Amino acid sequence: MDSNYSAVPPKDGFVELQLKDGDFESDLDRENGFLKRVNPDDPELDDDIDFDNLPLIFGDGNKSGSGIHGAVFNLTTTIVGAGIMALPAAMKVLGLILGFLLIILIGVLSEISVELLIRFSVQCNGISYGDVVQAAMGKTARIVSEICIIVNNAGVLVVYLIIIGDVMSGSLHHIGVFDQWLGHGFWDHRKVVVLIFLVIFLAPLCALDKIDSLSLTSAASVALAVIFVFVAIFVAFVKFVEGKIEIPKMTPNFGSENSILDLFVVIPVMTNAYVCHFNVPPIYNELEGRSPQKMYRVGRVTTVICVLVYASTAISGYLLFGKETESDVLTNFDKDLGIRFSSALTYIVRVGYVFHLILVFPVIHFSLRQAVDALFFKDRVPLTESRKRCLALTMVLLGLIYLGSTVVPNIWTAFKFTGATTAVSLGFTFPSLVALRLSKEGNRLSNTERSLCWFMLILAITVSVLGVFGNVYSIKKLS
């Protein structure tokens, strides 16, 4: 049978085919490694091409990767991390009504900014968050965005280690799981416990170099988060039926200077809870059969999941503990909940959420490592092609994050700082500026979209100013 291919002498037991006489050589897309699409009705097409000999299937270069479910799990995991633990404390400051409305509002605005980021990532062929920012605003803006990713993600990962230490080895005012199980021992030393968790569980997962490799662990982490939410709702419902729930605060208190100051710092904490934008481009680029419409669907499903999880956790957590709600509500679960099987439920909640954080950790670390590599090794080969550099960066970053977890006092401190600065910049400021800038180059915004961009930009600046002011004022007051 006639063929356009000839056999090449086998290597290592495999038979390789190559094109005869360079047939179709001009039709190969060298950049993507597949045949260019050919329109048979193109008037400029060479009449000598025999379409009967063309391949039956034209590749789009993206047949492998994660499906929509895997992308949803990865994006949901990026969002639902430690931020969920600070929301009941935020609800204590804001009251149930305002707190619930803000959870919905910030979630909707975050989803809009994600869709804008996807849309303009496709327009400028950006493979990372920094690429999109550079296409819109130049190299300096890209460097600033990568620094924001590094500070934000490093702060979030420090928070994860703090929570793991608080839960497993205890803190000044709370007893740890290991103390309850095993009594006193070396596990009382949180630095030792955190280091063991870091080496045994976190380092192997962080060594993976593709985010779609984490789809299964992300699915498991979402399941563990849902278990936590269901247990919290169940306990709150039982105590409500038994009349053991105090009447909650419905609106914020404006009667004192401290109350107003708390409002300044609590909103950045809530905006921090929805930041996932740094992982949107890599998740999109590893999406099987990717298209903007598919990624929009991923973003919308993720937003619905996160709003439900956040609202349920914030309300049930605040109802359970009221005025005693800690900045990390997980530490409140070290005592008797006042219902049957209380001890078993507290262990399920605490240990389950520790493992949730273990599975979330590598997803956040992935973008942190990418940003560091882009900032310091921009001209080197891609990180996925340099295993040594990937492992070296992973080890250095894990070491620095561990040191940070021994210095930062609690998660509220970390969230107040990152929420007022880097988180709001990554979630709202940069996506709005990118959309406004790149829309002038062809992909026009509607009047509604343009108004939303300006609203998010003004909101981001306001949250940053108030958050920084509140933090500085708090520090001065304490000193």
UniProtKB/TrEMBL annotation:
Protein's UniProt name: Amino acid transporter transmembrane domain-containing protein
Main location: membrane
Its membrane topology: Multi-pass membrane protein
Membrane spanning stretches: 71-90, 96-118, 147-172, 192-208, 220-240, 260-280, 301-321, 341-368, 389-412, 418-439, 451-473
UniProt keyword annotation of GTP-binding present: no
Keywords tagged on the record: Amino-acid transport, Membrane, Transmembrane, Transmembrane helix, Transport
Record carries keyword Hydrolase: no
Organism for this UniProt entry: Cuscuta campestris
Subcellular localization: Membrane
Domain Amino acid transporter transmembrane: 68-473
A GO term from the CC aspect: organelle membrane
Top-level taxon in the UniProt lineage: Eukaryota
GO function term, MF aspect, one: L-amino acid transmembrane transporter activity
PANTHER family, per the entry: AMINO ACID TRANSPORTER (PTHR22950), AMINO ACID TRANSPORTER AVT6E (PTHR22950:SF515)
